[in-house]
Amino acid sequence: MERVPVLKIGDILLVSIQVDMSDQTAVTLQEDLAERIVATGCHGVIIDITALDIVDSFVGRMLSTIASISRVLDAETVVVGMRPAVAITLVELGLSLNGIRTALNVERGMELIAAARADEWVLTDGDEDAETTATT
Amino acid sequence: MTAGVDLGAPQIQAIRSDDDVVRVRQLVRTVAVAAKLSLVDQTKLVTAASELARNTLIYGGGGSAEVASVDDGRRRGVRIVFADSGPGIPDLDLALTDGYTTGGGLGLGLSGARRLVDDFDVVTAVGEGTRITITKWSR
């Protein structure tokens, strides 16, 4: 069975799916990613599907599951690089990719993750130091 | 190649494992490209084939996919027949409902595949098996 590599770049895990995945490969990727998020403490996961010429219901569900798992492990997931024909097909298939953030490419995905983290910091600051924030 | 194109013999791919589902996708893609389906239509057909090949494996206990290039005189297309000798589908209307599943999936395989192709035909008998024929035509 082929295995999809998970690369760590700074605070982000990057997965670039380059093979036509069997269902088992997809399930293994899900597990590998969960382990790597915990092992590295990364707060962002970018899944690049530029090379995928289809996303069927199984892979769609895998993407949703990865997003949910990473959220529980305090990481944001962004799916990037979806081809137009894949997007059209997904919608017609009836797959809504619930809870998945998307971006056009890796660069925008990284910006999205950085922005999401920044928002969270502001919120946390506000909660903990409400008075300080109010006076400054 | 002139008029009266040789459409070639249908190609058969056995579906016995996860990897065979990948092979079905690849075979369908090759035939769809040769039949000059548009990129969106290729994508829809390969996606539908992936769903149905997985169903053949999981629910039908394995079977085969027969992929053929077809021509109705006006347009070309690709026809795929998925056949298994599994338990059959007891309630076809229910099985074709979005979100209905007896496995652990999303329940979009059969209903979603039907939306992605032009012709969709199911012949099933409880205890005997299921035969699903789909066709996608070039526009």
Descriptive overview:
- The complex is a heterodimer of chains A (136) and B (139).
- Chain A is globular, with a radius of gyration of 16 Å.
- Chain A has one domain: Transcription Regulator spoIIAA, CATH 3.30.750.24.
- With 136 residues, chain A is an alpha/beta fold.
- Helix content of chain A is 54%, strand content 16%.
- The longest helix of chain A has 23 residues, at 106-128.
- Chain B has 139 residues and is of the alpha+beta class.
- Chain B has a single domain, classed as Histidine kinase-like ATPase, C-terminal domain (Heat Shock Protein 90), CATH 3.30.565.
- A five-stranded antiparallel β-sheet of chain B has the order 1-2-3-5-4, with helices on one face.
- In chain B, a hairpin with a 4-residue loop joins β2 and β3.
- In chain B, α1 runs antiparallel to α2 (39-58) and α2 runs antiparallel to α4.
- Chain B is globular and about 35 Å long.
- The A-B interface holds A 20-24, 53-58, 60-61, 83-86, 88-89, 92-95 and B 18-19, 21-22, 25-26, 29, 39-40, 42-44, 46-47, 50-51, 54, 98, 105-106, 108-109, 111-113, 115-116.
Features:
A: alpha/beta; 5 helices; disordered C terminus; B: 139 residues; alpha+beta; Heat Shock Protein 90; globular
Q: From N to C, what is the helix and strand string of chain B?
A: EHHEEHHEE
| Average pLDDT for all residues of chain B | 91
With strands numbered from the N-terminus, the spatial order across the biggest sheet of chain B is: 1-2-3-5-4
Helix/strand structural class of chain A: alpha/beta
Largest sheet features of chain B: 5 strands, antiparallel
Computed CA radius of gyration of chain A, to the nearest angstrom: 16 Å
Strand order of the largest sheet of chain A: 1-2-3-4-5
From the spread of the alpha carbons, the general shape of chain A counts as globular
| Number of self-contained structural domains of chain A | 1
What level of helicity do the residues of chain A show?
40-55%
Order of helices and strands of chain A: EEHEHEHEHH
CATH superfamily of chain B: Histidine kinase-like ATPase, C-terminal domain
Show unreliable segments of chain A. 129-136
Which strand-content bin applies to the residues of chain B?
25-35%
Under CATH, the topology of chain B can be stated as Heat Shock Protein 90
Q: Residue ranges of chain B: pLDDT <50 for 5 or more in a row?
A: 1-6
InterPro entries (chain B): HATPase_C_sf, HATPase_dom
Protein name (chain B): Anti-sigma regulatory factor
Domain Histidine kinase/HSP90-like ATPase (chain B): 40-139
Organism (chain B): Micromonospora coerulea
